[in-house]
Amino acid sequence: MQSEIENPMNGNEARRHLRQTSSILWLLEREDCFKSDTCFIEFGSGKGGLTYWVAKVVETFPTSATQSLVLIDRSSPRHKKDNKLQETDFKVERIRIDIEDLKLDEVPLVQKSKHLVAVSKHLCGTATDMALKCLLETNSLVNRVAGVVFATCCHHQCSWGTFVGKEYLKNWGFTEDDFRPLTCITSWNVCGTGTGKFTNNSQDFNSIKYSRLNLRLEERRLIGWNAKRILDYARCQYLSSHGFDSRCATFVNIEDTYENVCIVGLAKRQILNQITNPV
User: Fold this and answer.
1) CA–CA separation, 150 vs 119, rounded Å?
2) Which among 63, 105, 209, 230 is most buried, taking Cβ atoms within 10 Å?
3) What order do you get walking across the sheet with 115-124 strand by strand?
4) What does pTM read for this prediction?
5) For residue 121, which phi and psi values (nearest 5 degrees)?
């Protein structure tokens, strides 16, 4: 993959996405998620770029023939990687559905797999919570989920009704009334340069909007980042309550994306196996 990142034929945007994907793959390998008889499930798969590179990594392992790939997205974008995936030896299925309506335990490739690993590169707002519920609140699935690596984004689109970590927010003193302001503040982390459109008085719009707060752009970004981490840490607590060792991990530099944090969850039984059966 490094050769693709360094390939001058790829533009800056393509290389930026490749670096993000490479870092997610590194996290999966570090957590020993590339096991035999595993179904890799990409939520919010889009064109399938992340799954494509998961397949390229899995091909290098001797147990690759036992792996399967499931891509889930509510849209059907053009120029998907599906044709290239079909050329591999893996069993592949793309499901066009809203995650809220997905019954993952009824997907044949999921039913047949011993281990499940869920991944996503920038799963927006409530979709992250719905994906976690889909995995961990289905009795026939939860004991087979070996790992979760979700790069989160769009925290301002989270809702109280679907948020998986609200009980933990309550324990920390947040109320339902606090939730909406908290999610709105998360957008400060990605609020741009602050030098956007100007008013007729040639004053920066954002400067006027935030003047009463007496906060510089860098301070707003930091507050927004902290608000995002509160929400993600609550999600990690949800993972922990279902038997996972979980954490937030920075997976790329901020120059590649402001949304540079992953939720990482590894089933504690998986950790025990690594200790008792070292390679």
Assistant:
1) 5
2) 230
3) 91-96, 68-73, 38-43, 115-124, 145-153, 261-267, 244-250
4) 0.87
5) -110, 100
How is residue 88 written in tokens? Answer: 């591999």
The pairing of beta strand 244-250 with beta strand 261-267: antiparallel
The per-residue pLDDT for range 70-129, each reduced to its tens digit, is 999 998 777 677 778 877 778 999 999 999 999 999 999 999 999 999 999 999 999 999
CA distance 136 to 6: 38
Residues in CB range of 195: below 8 A, 6 or more apart: 204, 206
Find tokens 């908290």 and name the residue. 182
Q: Which residues contact 202 (CB under 8 A, 6 or more apart)?
A: none
Q: How many CA atoms lie within 13 A of 25 on its CB side?
A: 18
The predicted-structure confidence for 130-144, as pLDDT tens digits, reads as follows 999 999 998 889 999
